[in-house]
Amino acid sequence: MQNTFDPSQFKLDTLVDPTLVTETLLTNIPVQKPNRQQFIRTHPDPAYTYDAAILPYDGESYLVAGAMLPALDGEYRAVRLQLSIARGGLVPFLWPLNLPGGDGRPNMWNESAMMSARKAQDAWVRVMSDQAQGMYITREAKGIEDEPQWPEKPMVELLGIAFDGKTITEIEHPVVRRLMGYA
Amino acid sequence: MMEGVVIPATYDRFATIWVVDTEFVARDGDRPDPVCVVAQELRSGREERVWLGTSPAHPIRPIPCPYDLGDDALFVSFTASAELGVHLAQGWAMPCNVLDLYVEHLRITNGRDRPCGTSLLGVMASYGIGSMSAGVKDACRDLIMVGGPWDAQDQIRILDYCAEDVVGTCDLFGRMVALDHIDLDRALVRGRYMAAVARMEWAGIPMDHAGLANILDHRDEVRDRLITQVDADYGVYTGHKFNVGAFQWYLMPEGIAWPRLPSGRLKLDDDTFKDRASAYPQLQPLYELRRSLSGLQTNRLQIGRDGRNRAALMPFAWKTGRNQPSNSRFIFGQSAWWRSFIRADVGCGLAYLDWDQQEFGIAAALSGDEAMKAAYQSGDPYLAFAKQAGAVPEDGTKDSHPSERDMFKACVLAVQYGMGAEALGGRIDQPAIAAQDLLLLHRRTYHQFWSWSDQMLETALMRGWIETVFGWRCHLPVQPNDRSIRNFPMQANGAEMLRLACINATEAGIEVCAPVHDAVLIHGPLGRLDADIDQMKEIMTEASRVVLDGFAITAGVEQVCHHPDRFMDKRGAGLWSYLSQWAA
Fold first, then answer.
1. For chain A, which residues make up each domain, given as ranges?
2. What is the pLDDT of residues B33-47, one digit of tens each?
3. Mutate which of A6, A9, A12 to disrupt the B interface (most B C-beta within 10 Å)?
4. Contacts of B232 (CB under 8 A, 6+ apart)
5. Is the ipTM of this complex over 0.85?
6. Given an 8 Å threshold on Cβ–Cβ distance, is B458 in contact with A88?
7. What is the pTM of this model?
8. Do residues B39 and B66 lie in contact, with contact meaning Cβ atoms separated by under 8 Å?
């Protein structure tokens, strides 16, 4: 062959097309305590916390509307829903942190959980119960440098996903009817 | 202009477009003996028919090539390596521009079903082009394969037959062009490789054919000797038969986990054995023995009259575009000890060169992961990965931290092969959770690579195809396999690299005997072998720069052997030591 062979001019760059992208759709956000064996982080922005009343029933957490609170006195818990994520996880979860009760008595479980959540704002931690001391203890990871990937949606949308179909706004709600003994 | 063929403007750069077919006699392992050539120029319709007639009674005559070969001519054929083998036999130059419709059809259908097959008639049928019946074609082929002598009528019949294939190829060209099935610039790069294939098939692999014939004449004794010698360490053969029960008893005290079929029986296929043998090196001789025994029965190595092994290289036959020569006909498809029959000609030597950690380097370059690039450029990516992950101190070496290096090497290879934690755990003899941690370390250390890999996977899934930097495309099946897609850029661009290296080496006059995955075997007189090796290394490194936008994958020499020394694959050295008496 006599012609000059310069194949580099015919190269393509088609492996990655940045216009063809997918997004992980958040279809479910669990409301749960952190798994004691997983390292977690909490969102440092206060906008990603939400104080609410939730009613745990049959393994699910229901969000209770303010107007329903008198009717459900003693059934719900006042919590701070804290956006959190486990290491390596793609889907965040809402950590329900119990808020102080109206009686003003200190509760080591609740206070230590709040402290763990604060620590998790800037460090990967494991949160474990210590039955002997009646509190949570926090273990901080020393060798993890990667940062969590937070969803870009606002908290109100995340709450909508977490409590989709699980909001109690009226006395006729099936869960309320069951608790009242009507069903 | 040929009736019905509309030539698009893209082809205006060519003053002539010659569609060519040849007939030749090809005895197993021999170079082709040309019989005739027919060529048709698409624009003018001009036809050239030339009888090349070879037989002992009609030696090759000095006939000039009847068509243009220059930069402004396009040579079109179906399986061009065959036509270009005739060029080499006739002493004709290679065409500057080769378009191989067979290769382009493979590209268009790669990953899809090919219900009509890949023969010229089948491909024509898939484009709705009628042709002579397969029976008539077979009869003509039989007439040619007799090898002559052919009387005047036979010659006319053979030339007509050849001309009919040319007409079919012209129609096929027209149809493929009309359907935009030819990506011309990159097709010409592939066509150029077909010329390299012709040269490599022409060269063949020099062999100790007398020794090989002697071994094959003593198959039974060879089989008995191999079993006696190798099985002494295992006790898993009863006579000539592999005893599965005894093998299970062997595995238990060795603590070797072995995959099982749903029925509970041991999986004993070649891939499983190969995988277990690389995880447990003590199994390597047994694996080689099993391959050897089956190879002794099925061996159909094609040795030409010049003592060289020649098998069709079957370029582009893998989905990744790699060559796929027949295992039973190609010496490198056989169990490792057979390669000891490879021996340079008198006064010559052989060299086997490959790229260093090619897939890791390609992954680093394509993904742009700086940590991965640095690991590759350190010269020992496995140790570098262990250091980057914090498992080995900065001043650690492969001597001071051999087990860590092995572990991280296994992890890198597991990522390349798409292994999960379970399989990697088996490979490194660790629980799956330890393997999972290693794989996570890979993800964290090379997060840019993983981000690129994820994006590349998504792009491929959304498009339904994936391709190399030179457009070798693979269509994804209905249920695509993530692991295959993630590995495709490394394997398929590695194949591109090999093709470029083979093109440049053969055009530079280096005698390339065979491409072997990511390696080449070259042969030459001792007076120029060292220079050829240096040039080949540079050509291979330069090919990587072209494919990877300047990133260099270095090439090294695995082995050099001068006549009368034999090529030696270390994996087969043990078995060879039991057999060398027959090959002496």
1. 28-179
2. 999 999 999 999 999
3. A12
4. none
5. no
6. no
7. 0.85
8. yes
